Amino acid sequence: MFRRRSRSAPDDDPVRRAAQYRVDRETAREASERDDPGHADVPGPAGDEAPAAESPVPDDDAAPRGPRRVRPEDRALYVDTVIDQAIRRGEFDDLPLAGKPIPGLTGTHDPDWWLKSVIEREQLTGLGPPAMLLKQEDRELDDRLDRELDETTVREILADFNARVVDARRQLLGGPPVVTPTRDVEHEVARWRARRGRTA
């Protein structure tokens, strides 16, 4: 996280103080003009008429002016000054991607890049498009079968996996295509028996 500089710390940069002064001055002027729209003429008691006053000669210099706006150049100068000072204080040192390529700039567009990045960063399980979940489950299926002791349970797991793969292929909800193949139940049961025979 960035180290926040204390407001009470003295600021020795005259450029930043000048830019901040201009921004604060214009902001205060705009706020005062919004809060004080002008004084309405209040009539005196009934029957009392104020003497007619001569209308003043209009003065071009005294003509009311609209609120002054802070120039974009002043705002840009202030922002640049604050960033330069933060760099000198080292607040941008040792950032997570310092000196590394930005992830995701591979030249190919993946519509689910944000979802994959969240799942990978947060190490979430059981979330995501069916294509991703089935692909992950397919990689771990042999280990799951090896933990089973009953052939009937192994066959049920394989049948359920195949049914979900076929069902995911039929879905037209968008997302990445389902490329996970189904498993041949008899072949996988034979492999399961062979692995159990080696570990027995």
Automatic annotation (TrEMBL):
InterPro entries: DnaJ_homolog_subfam-C_membr-28 (IPR018961). Residues 1-75 are annotated as: Disordered. It comes from the Bacteria. Residues 40-54 have a biased composition (Low complexity). Pfam families: DJC28_CD (PF09350). Residues 79-146 form the DnaJ homologue subfamily C member 28 conserved domain. This is Molecular chaperone DnaJ.
